[in-house]
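Why this split exists: single-chain examples teach little about how molecules sit against one another. For that reason, every record in the complexes split bundles all components of an assembly together and asks for one structure covering all of them. Below is a record exactly as it appears in the raw files.
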Amino acid sequence: MGLDEQLQKDGFITTSIDAVIKWAQNSSVWPFPLGISCCAIEMMAAASPRFDLARFGSEVFRMTPRQSDVLLVAGTVTYKMAWVVRKIYDQMPDPKWVISMGACASTGGMFRSYSVVQSIDKFLPVDVYISGCPPRPESVIKAIMMIQDKIKSKEYKPALVNFGKDVSPMPHQGSNSVM
Amino acid sequence: MEQYFENIHSVIKLNTENYEIVKHRNQITYTIPKDNLLDICFELKENPEIALDMCVDITAIDWLDKKHNRFEVVYFLYSMNHNKRLRLKVQISESSLLCPSVSEVWGSANWYERETFDMYGIKFEGHPNLRRFYMPEDYCDPETGEPLYPLRKDFPLMGIPDSMPLPPYPEKFGDVI
């Protein structure tokens, strides 16, 4: 029996809370576009009409971490920037996921040097890595769909909403730091 | 030589006898003593025949053991009126690491000198705000406490371990620093 028929006949359906929450979360995975270098261009292209991330419920790039579910780290993360990335991650409400987009965020990429973090998984729990330099917009869509699969999977149990705590990480940059 | 560069030559000759000149592909480089740097820079900027009114970049070269003086500070100058460029070099020995600041002559030199200080550790005398530019202000070797200068030739490519700590790994949901 289809959903339409059920609604017309009885006016209600029976299901589990888990399934409803998972269905809702999985249909609105809102990314935080942390575009910190050239991967951001492909990330924006993924949201544009040509590739249309909106088909998968992720069209709203929230410009505040407090309204987003996925941290899309698109670009090179330096040691100084790592504290900013962590601060943004801390401000996101649970449940949250992290996508490491491109070679730089995943491995340090071509920047094998003293200033660049050689993979953001040294300080963040990464759920999906995207390869490429920069990756195609299709890969970004694929990563979002992998997050959706993760939400739909049996291992994921939606918990009560725990809003991001209003605590700022302590900066390490010295006395005159702006953070 | 062109009249414009003759004017420059006379200015530099007037201030010092201890200079070197290198010409390569119509680009002219003067190596001058650091004591005469400020006077020469003032004159090069203010003289209307020369009017090198823009400081395009300041950087340094680390020669390590290849030259007697380890460091060389390089000034790239440009004249808007004459559409001409000039390069100045000043040699800095490793023992003193002092160089006069030209930030009073060209305002743009302020940040260039901060960057050069950050990367090479050359101390610009008279600079109004000589702090680190890119690296953390307390960037130093965790074992010895010596400040680190990343663009020096004896600095390891991947840096010194633990000189720039990363944020701790979040263990569970809602775990904040």
